[in-house]
Specification:
Length: 167
């Protein structure tokens, strides 16, 4: 049996009623010389292997779909193709759907933004900030007007405040 950590085989045997684990560094013929070979038993590897998610190119997916279409109607041929390629039928179904919708092989995630979109977003943000500043300045001006009224200071040639457009 393969051992996941170092790729070697592991053997188990009984020596005088005691279980022993023998790594692949000891050959079975060496065990025979010790009188242990008839009792050698393979121990299943209990280590779980993590399969990495594979990424397939657009061309690979299309070639598999073409092969699957050619094998339609042939008994067991599609299953053989899937076993050979290490795929599941769900992958074929997903790829067919993506192909039919024109999405096969497209990059997932955020869409690239155009320069125009970036500039519009920047200008909208700047516009919001400027409107906030104008609101603050208007409060200051109103406060100054009230203070000058209380102190009796006459305001000459002061244009009225424009009303703010609420969008």
């Amino acid at each position: 049996m393969k051992n996941g950590s170092n790729g070697g085989s592991v053997l188990s045997t009984m020596v005088g009623g005691t279980a022993c684990v023998i790594k692949d560094s000891v050959k079975v013929k060496d065990l025979a010389s010790l009188g242990l070979a008839p009792n050698v038993v393979a121990v299943p590897d209990s280590e779980v292997r993590v399969r990495r998610r594979r990424r397939h190119t657009r061309e690979y997916k299309l070639s598999i779909l073409k092969q699957a279409e050619k094998l339609k109607g042939k008994d067991g041929a599609l299953g053989e193709l899937l076993r050979r390629e290490g795929l599941y039928t769900a992958a074929l179904s997903t790829w067919r759907k993506q192909r039919d919708e024109g999405l096969l092989g497209q990059a997932r995630g955020r869409k690239a933004r155009s320069e125009e979109t970036i500039q519009i977003e920047r200008l909208e943000k700047e516009n919001r900030k400027l409107k906030e500043k104008i609101g603050q300045y208007q409060l200051v001006i109103e406060a100054q007007k009230k203070i000058s009224e209380i102190l009796g200071i006459k305001q000459e040639n002061v244009p009225p405040m424009p009303e703010e457009d609420n969008e």
